[in-house]
Amino acid sequence: MSICPKNKSSKGRRNQRRANWKMSVAALVKCPKCGALMAPHRVCKACGTYNKKEIIAVD
């Protein structure tokens, strides 16, 4: 048999449960070389460096 609720859930209880589904702000850090904001553990899009080494040649 399937699961059936014994009692009706009120709108407030239902909405409290659904209120925790929200997006979080993306984590950004400053690039140590150029100071631009970038995602941690990724190549910097502004200067093309990662871990103080040039990975991508950016014009």
Question: How would you describe the overall organization of this protein?
Answer:
With 59 residues, this protein is of the alpha+beta class. It has a domain at 28-59. Helices cover 14% and strands 14% of the residues. The chain has one helix and four strands. The strands form two sheets. It has a two-stranded antiparallel sheet. A hairpin with a 2-residue loop joins strand 3 and strand 4 (53-54).
Brief account:
The protein is α+β, with helices and mostly antiparallel strands. It has one helix at residues 11-18, and strands at residues 29-30, 37-38, 49-50, 53-54.
Distance between the ends: 64 Å
Order of helices and strands: HEEEE
Binned strand content: 5-15%
Tell me the Rg in angstroms.
23 Å
Q: Taking all residues together, what is the mean pLDDT? A: 91
The total strand number stands at: 4
List keywords for this structure.
14% strand; rod-shaped; two-stranded antiparallel sheet; 59 residues; alpha+beta
What does the secondary structure layout of this molecule look like, with pairings?
Layout: H1 11-18, E1 29-30, E2 37-38, E3 49-50, E4 53-54
Antiparallel strand pairs: 1-2, 3-4
